[in-house]
């Protein structure tokens, strides 16, 4: 029988961590969710300023899996997500073409963080809590945070919903289970990406709302203002390619902005009134792994995230739910649950 007094800690409040924590709570278990940021969402992020906002992480998400489609329907019904139907273009070398796609693209409403905030509202969530060490005691696991020191709670299991390099850092300890999980996290190659948020006094007269770019430093551009529920200043988002970003990660924001704006102007854009740059250190995985999640029932340790499940928002949600299910299954069988798959494998922004 499952002991419903078990207390789980989920570290990381992106969509994988939120999915995992929600599924555990729905199973009747006690869950505490932690994140170093001021709020939930991870890379489903939106930057807010004086009279403007812009999604600068994940730009949209698709829903092909039946269970995730059902979850997205819940979000839409709650008013925190909606369909986005942009006029799409593809720039490929010297040519460009419109893309008439039947693919459904969803976004958070009124901003990309909305589904994450809605999920977090029903959870015991501690923001601005940077977990820097996992401590194993006879009674269970304790967490050491940068801001609060050793947290008073004792946990039966720790579930890490973090980018692979951050998980690997936490798992650099002596236990064989930690070494095994740490090696898995260390095997994933995650790449950075520069994002540039642009503000304009009036809408740009461009014949598209979003474009895939297969030339130069840019890979994606979007009129954020064209997404449902948006209002205020006209904003655009530029995402640099992972390859270009990796080669320019150490450069200052002014130089990055000049290079990306030049590339945007070559596609018909104009200089903005103002811009804000953001450097994502862990934007996607190359390649993304295909193992759903990793779970060590004997030690009460698990990993989930888009980097473990093919990338993308959908992969992150499914990974978190899969880890929660494995953890619940192990409780129901006296701790002899599904073990970590034997081969390793990883997430892009979209």
Quick tags:
single chain; about 350 residues; alpha/beta; FAD/NAD(P)-binding domain; Polyamine Oxidase, Chain A, domain 2; 2 domains; seven-stranded mixed beta sheet; six-stranded mixed beta sheet; 8 helices; globular; disordered C terminus
Task: Describe the protein in words.
The chain is α/β, with parallel strands linked by helices. 26% of the residues lie in helices and 30% in strands. It has two domains: 138 residues, FAD/NAD(P)-binding domain, CATH 3.50.50.60; 149 residues, Polyamine Oxidase, Chain A, domain 2 (Alpha-Beta Complex). Strand 11 and strand 12 form a beta hairpin. The two termini are 40 Å apart. The relative contact order is 0.18. The C terminus is likely disordered.
Architecture blueprint of SSEs:
Blueprint: E1 7-11, H1 15-26, E2 30-34, E3 46-49, E4 52-55, H2 66-78, E5 81-84, E6 88-92, E7 95-99, E8 105-108, H3 114-120, E9 124-126, E10 131-137, E11 140-145, E12 149-150, E13 157-160, H4 164-170, H5 176-187, E14 190-200, E15 210-213, E16 218-223, E17 234-240, H6 242-247, H7 253-266, E18 274-285, E19 293-296, E20 301-304, H8 312-332
Parallel strand pairs: 1-2, 1-13, 2-9, 6-15, 13-20
Antiparallel strand pairs: 3-4, 5-8, 6-7, 10-11, 11-12, 14-17, 14-18, 15-16, 16-17, 19-20
